[in-house]
Amino acid sequence: MPQTLTKAVIPAAGLGTRFLPATKAIPKEMLPVVDRPAIQYVVEEAVSAGLGDVLMITGRNKAPLENHFDRVAELEAALFERGAVGNLERVRASTELADVHYVRQGDPLGLGHAVLRAKMHVGDEPFAVLLGDDIINDGGALLRRMIEVHHETKASVIALMEVEESQVSSYGVVAHEPGADDDLVRVTRLVEKPTPAEAPSRLAIIGRYLLRPEVFEVLERTQPGRGGEIQLTDALQALAGAPDAGGVIGVVHRGSRYDTGNKLEYLKAVVELACRHDEVGPELRDWLIGFVANGGPDASASPAEPVAVGAGPGGDRGYSDRTG
C-alpha cells in the first residue's frame, strides 16, 4: 500500500519588504484577500488535498500567524452573545482547519534551508511544501494530482507552469523529457533564475513540491548557491539525477495561480476571488464592467505621489529585496 501523505510544510519567514509600509507591523502572509488572510488559502488548499498536519517555518515578528490559527476565546464569547453565528463560524473555521505547528528558520539562508528546518517534524515520510506566497485556488486539485503521481512513480514531484520568456529569470526553470501523461514531464535539469538565453525551457517551478525524505540528506550537504543561499533547486537537481531516489517528475499546471508576494498579482488575486465571492461577487462584477466601460480611472485626476524615503543629499537609500 502507498504511504499516506499527511504533512505539509509552509515556509513563511520572508520579510515582505515589497509591500512596505503595509508589512511594517504585520506579516505579508496576513495581508487580506477579500475576507481571509492570504496564508489561510494556502492552508485550506493543503487540507483539501488531505494534508491536515501543517508545519509553518516562520521568523521574528510572525506571531500574528500563530494568533490567527489559535483560539480567541474573548472574541468567540462576544460573537456568541451577540448572536453573530456566521462570524463565529468563520472565526472558528480558521482555528479548526488543521493541526498547525511552528518552527523558526533562524538564519535567512534560503528556501532549501527553510525546508531543512522541517526535518525533525517530518521524519522519514514524504511531504508537501507549499510556498506561503502562492494562491492556487483549485480546491486542492493540483496537490491531489501530485500525490497521485508520487504514489504511482515514487518520485519527488514538482508543480510547473509555462511562463513568458521575459519571466524565466524570476523562477527555477527545468529541462525535461516527455512523461507518461500529457500533464507530466520527467525533469532532467533545473536552473535557478536563468537569463532567457540560459533557460532550458519555459516551464517554471511554482510554489508546490512533493518531496521524498531523502531531500533532507541532500540539503544537509548542499552548499550555498545563488545569492549565498541554500537553494531547494540545487537539491532537486541532485534528486533528478538519482534513480534510486525516484528522480523528479513535473506536473504541468494550466489553471490560475497568483504570487501574492507581487503587488500586481496580489491585486489580481483579490479581484478574482472577490468576483467569485457569494456576498460581494455579483455587485463587484457589475461595478467592474461599468468601471472598464467608462475607461477606468479619471485620467484628469492626479495620482497621489509616494513619499520619498531616504532621498536627499545622500542619494537614494533603497535596497534590493531578496527576502520578499
TrEMBL record:
Gene Ontology annotations of biological process type: UDP-alpha-D-glucose metabolic process
UniProt keyword Transmembrane helix present: no
Enzyme class: transferase
Region (Disordered): 300-324
Enzyme Commission number(s) of this protein: 2.7.7.9
Family: Belongs to the UDPGP type 2 family.
Protein name: UTP--glucose-1-phosphate uridylyltransferase
Lineage, opening ranks: Bacteria, Bacillati, Actinomycetota, Actinomycetes, Micrococcales
